[in-house]
Amino acid sequence: MSAVTDPISDLLVRIRNGIVSRKKTVDVPASRLKVSIIRILKDEGYIKNYRILKDNRQGILRVYLKYLKDGRRNVIQTLRRISTPGRRVYAPLHLIPRPSGGLGIALVSTSRGLLTDRECRRAKVGGEVLLEVR
Predict the structure, then answer these.
(1) Distance of alpha carbon 94 from alpha carbon 79, whole angstroms
(2) Pick from 46, 48, 52, 71: CA 20 to 30 A from residue 28's CA?
(3) Is the pTM above the cut of 0.85?
(4) Calpha distance 2→118 (Å, rounded)
């Protein structure tokens, strides 16, 4: 088994693949940053729930995916990584993106922790733009 060079991209790919194959849950190796990302996705209504399962290593993050009432369409339309290990993207307050004109969210790593684009504008802080969700 090879080491993952970008754990955030790995999380997004696992969620995308789970949605495409109509899975109810997706399991991902846990970390504090991944738990923060998933917590925000739950608070914003993009996933149903999550749970941290214990194992003898770092733990497993189980993500419960959310679909619309018809059961055919998923709530998450797009998951896009902005800042990568090879190309970091930092944005001051006035350049923080508004995905889909405010219909989506951008997750920004700031000095105050992981925040959504709206929370960044309210707190008047900028930071590293990690990903966009629509």
Answers:
(1) 23
(2) 71
(3) yes
(4) 37
